[in-house]
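Proteins fold reproducibly. Next comes a concrete instance:

***
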Amino acid sequence: MAKKKLGLEDLGGFVFSTNDEFDETSYTNGDSQEELAPEDQKLEAHFSNKGRGGKTVTIIKNYQGPEEELIKLGKLLKKKCGVGGSTKDGEIIIQGDDREKIMQILQKEGYQVKRVGG
């Protein structure tokens, strides 16, 4: 059975207009986010092992900006810590409990970081 279409965004970005003066170049997709400067962002470094088979991870939350920049930041953190991880749902997930090291890296990059949880 085919996936059911739920809304206009599921139609692939089509814009339906009966306005003859509609300028399609001025239409903006709602997906783009404004990038805040690193010093204006307040990131949170969480520790978690729930739902991961007992494996510990560090989760960076509250990043505000484009998905591409979040992915770049995630790659930087993984490279500097020498561990694996992923970036999804607006969060950076780094394997292991390296909160202190991650916080130092983020602060050197200019971000404000707060340690949250255990």
